[in-house]
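Hi Prof. W.,

I finally got the Putative pterin-4-alpha-carbinolamine dehydratase prediction working! I wasn't sure whether to trim anything, so I left the full sequence exactly as given:
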Amino acid sequence: MPIGLTPRLLGRDEIDRALGALEGWEGDEHRLRRVVVLPPERQRPLRDAVARAEQDMTHHARVEQSRDSITFEVWTHSLDRVTDMDVELARRIDAAVAAVGSSG
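And this is what came out:
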């Protein structure tokens, strides 16, 4: 069942605090981004775990996959800005990365 958050825009100071608590993320008021380095055989389990989080939140990341990494980029498309929903999705992506096991 979706969690039904209403997106709340975050100021730069809130984003900086959130980035300090997230693993390997960078960004600003418009985008949060993390590159996860992991072998190809670990990528599908990570993508699946992130897809479950996205479905639960009804909020989605832009995902780019290469041979040895996956890049996640989150923002609230309707506002073209970072909101509290993006920070929550980033936390869930971090939890998925930790569960799958990776570096980066």
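The chain has a mean pLDDT of 91. Does that look reasonable to you?

Thanks,
D.
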